[in-house]
Amino acid sequence: MKILVPVKRIAALEEDFEIRDDGRDVDGDFINWDLNEWDDYSLETAMQIKEAAGGEPEVVVVTVGPDDAEEVLRKCLAKGADRAIRVWDDALEGADQLAIARVLAGVAKTEAPDLILAGVQSSDHSHGCTGIALSALLDMPHAAVVAAMTYSAGDAKVRVQRELEGGMLHAVDVSTPAVLTIQLGINTPRYASLRGIKQAAARPIEELSAADLGADFASASRVRRMYVPEKSRAQMIEGSPAEQAARIAEIIREATGA
Amino acid sequence: MARDPKYDILFEPIQIGPKTLRNRFYQVPHCIGAGSDKPGFQAAHRSLKAEGGWAAMNTEYCSIHPESDDTMRVSARIWDEGDVRNLKAMTDEVHKHGALAGVELWYGGAHAPCLETRATPRGPSQYASEFETLSYCKEMDLADIAMVQQYYVDAARRSRDAGFDIVYVYGAHSYLPLQFLNPYYNKRTDKYGGSLENRARFWLETLEKVRNAVGADCAIATRFAVDTVYGPDQIEVEVDGMKFVELADPLVDLWDVDVGDIAEWGEDAGPSRFYQQGHQVPWTRFVKQVSKKPVLGVGRFTDPEKMTEIVTKGFADIIGAARPSIADPFLPKKIEEGRIDDVRVCIGCNVCISRWEIGGPPMICTQNATAGEEYRRGWHPEMFPKKKSEDSVLVVGAGPSGSECARVLMERGYTVHLYDSAEKIGGHLNSVVTLPGLGEWGYHRDYRETQITKLLKKNKQSQLMLGQKRMTADDVLNYGAEKVVIATGSSWNTDGVNCLTHAPIPGADASAPEQLTPEQVLSGKKPIGKRVVILNADTYFMAPSLAEKLATAGHEVTVVSGVHLANYMHFTLEYPNMMRRMHELHVEEIGDHFCSRIEKNRLEIYNIWGDGSRRTYRGPGVAPRDANTTHRWLEFDSLILVTGRHSDDTLHRELKARESEWEANGIKAVYLIGDAEAPRLIADATFTGQRLAREIEEANAQFPLPYKREVATWGTPHLPGGTFEIVYQK
């Protein structure tokens, strides 16, 4: 029994930040890197399945990212993951979610997990599709936005409750192997103990290059521009009703170019 | 980050006579317990604020002559050359940071009891001090007036020699100049009494003499309570207040104005329980209408928005601060650097003031645990020594002591895991702040929360773990921390154990439906009946606060108190208005009574002095006093037990019992801090957290390192050229 948990090192912004000179991302000086919040919940889900089964199931975390991304894997190891894999290739710089899903699919084919637990989305880019793209590439059944689930290691199917609009839940049985994207609040993620953190620091991280996986990791999209939209302005118009009306008419003329 | 341009006005220099204030942030005179006898403390505390950006730092009230001796309270003194030498340490250090140093020349009249000097204080008329009830003054004749005015002049000259830039004639808080001005004290019929011009004469002449003596070198300031807030019988700002400002305006370079007197000086240093930031403005705003000189006002200003408003609206030119400068000596610098969320906001608890009122111990601060420790322990509030080991630390409990300890350890570079069962940092403070008027105390928690959140970003190995299950000894042993800090707090006793009998009260049991601990009241889960009795053996705020809360909610509240109810609130200046509130809310107090037993819906109370005044030896097994026959029953629907607290130290005890397992689990030491060690003031709990974090590398860091003491040294005469030897009159 093996559970694969894809995780991401996300960019959290400082209160004040600047956009990179090329206008396509935030300047790295203004970013705090951290483990994606949703991934805390997917890892916890995996850990609970593992513990309920007496520890036998193997929990493997994988991330696609440069050297620095290792820190989020160590965080997962500190919380009890069994193995950690990092895949990177300089060509993946700026890769989109489809390319990342293709890399993850390459790892999944090698690892052959019984269950893949991804987060619903990443908190920085919020595409919400890497996990689902992964299920398509692997031709596995999937369930998105899982708010509760019943599953024991080795079960042929997982019973999930998906979160819908208006507080509704959608109960679905999904045959395994499957890809689930896990929603916040499904559990209470654990913290790593200091012992866990210290042990994780010495654990090996398996490193793979894109070439090792031998697949095509082309992106289907590219970022053209990242920017802070101009704020709309509010102004108080003072004066007599006639003066106010005249000023409003003037603003409308300016805005419509009339 | 640069400062917000909207605060630029706060950083404009201001000319005061021959001196220039570099900005509008001004530390008004305030007590710290240093005076002239602890020059290191004085110099370090004031100069630290100079480093933090304040434009001027003043001494506390500084006695001009042995006739004005406030022992046991600690004032500064500038009586002789020995004092000049000691105070010069302060001015030198303040000057190093480009700021000005001021001295508040003080003569107390009958309010100064002269317990050390045994001198006779003089006053405008003979009166018995309403502040020091055993002391009277002698009424001054004209020769006395000239003599005392010369004391001011001589003290001003010594002040200049000591390097002071600003010399005050102190007339607030009902000290001598105001005693002349105020008909409450001044009953004279000569040219120093009667009309305003006559009552003002002493003060004006004194200012003129001091100005003539040192005005070319020093800015002359006066501190004036423009309204004593007692109505028409005393000083009212729109009557005598503004007129006096007009009369004295040509003689001063700086007005330092406030309200109130000494007996109730909490009307000036208003506790947050009753007064918000800027509470004096309705009175002090009149001064600028008649003065052409710079005016500074106080009122616990911590918010630069409010400060800017005070200046731009023309209420004052300069922001005076005592308490906010203690809570955050770097307040101006943080505003300058755009670091508003790093400001340690004064919570207005007045625990700083309590130490002066108690009479001598060094000032402490609830927010700033380094206050008063600058010199003797070398603690700088914004500077932390780098960690001296790679040990990681688990702190169990995120209340005042635990969060402070974690914060300082993290500042030092340690990896820290801060762990609590609650969902929020703050411990018991989170419920205390829901008591009437105590909302601002939450700034203590907010500061630590903000700082810890920032520090967590700097060290990804550190963790803040809230909402966790309570830790067991096994959890701690397995956790993997080299050092463990137990900060699990304290709770109110459920069985009535108290400081009078040191034993449970028969029948006291907070698990019964009609009995409650303060925590149970605050959690709001247990129903409370109409008739409430609060059984009190605690001398601080819990009993009156609960009485206020419940009486406001419509309960009929009786407080049975075996100790002086709210005694510590005398020291924090909260007492007078707390008692007024008890009265307004019809809270009945049965003082000098305690409880012998509790039954369902009734408690048996007795007069604690009911056991007879005659003590006789009656042999073993027989009490030396008569049986107390004052017992009677009092009925209640709900009884609240404010009898005492106990440390929640079970985890620590369990860990100590398993000390043999520490090494195998990689644990080098386990420490106990805050209320978990012994219940105490929030200020003291916070201190234990800071203290341990700064000394954690020491071999036995549970116990504090010795600090640098300042004591009179045998073999060294106080007066230059004097003698220290024992010499008798012959």
Rg of chain A is: 23 Å
Specify the helix fraction band of chain A.
25-40%
**Mean pLDDT over all positions of chain B:** 97
Number of strands of chain B: 28
Q: Report the CATH superfamily of chain A.
A: HUPs
Give the helix proportion of chain B (percent range). Answer: 25-40%
Structure commentary:
The complex is a heterodimer of chains A (258) and B (730). With 258 residues, chain A is an alpha/beta fold. Chain A has one domain (2-213): Rossmann fold, CATH 3.40.50. Helix content of chain A is 30%, strand content 25%. Chain A is built from seven helices and eleven strands. Chain A has helices spanning 37-52, 70-78, 97-111, 130-138, 194-201, 210-213, 241-256; strands spanning 2-6, 9-13, 31-35, 58-64, 83-88, 115-119, 142-150, 157-163, 169-175, 178-182, 206-209. Chain A has a nine-stranded mixed beta sheet, sandwiched between helices. In chain A, β4 (58-64), α2 and β5 (83-88) form a beta-alpha-beta unit. In chain A, α3 (97-111) crosses α4. The radius of gyration of chain A is 23 Å and the shape is elongated. The model of chain A has no long low-confidence stretch (mean pLDDT 93). Chain B has 730 residues and is of the alpha/beta class. In chain B, 29% of the residues lie in helices and 17% in strands. In chain B, the strands form seven sheets. An eight-stranded parallel β-barrel of chain B has the order 3-4-6-9-10-11-12-13, surrounded by six helices. In chain B, strands 16-15-14-17-28 form a five-stranded parallel beta sheet, with helices on both faces. In chain B, strands 19-26-20-21-22 form a five-stranded parallel beta sheet. In chain B, β14 (393-396), α13 and β15 form a beta-alpha-beta unit. In chain B, α1 (39-51) packs parallel to α2, α5 (196-214) packs parallel to α6 (237-248) and α13 (400-411) packs parallel to α15 (443-458). The mean pLDDT of chain B is 97. The chains are: A alpha/beta (258), B alpha/beta (730). At the A-B interface, α5 of A face loops of B.
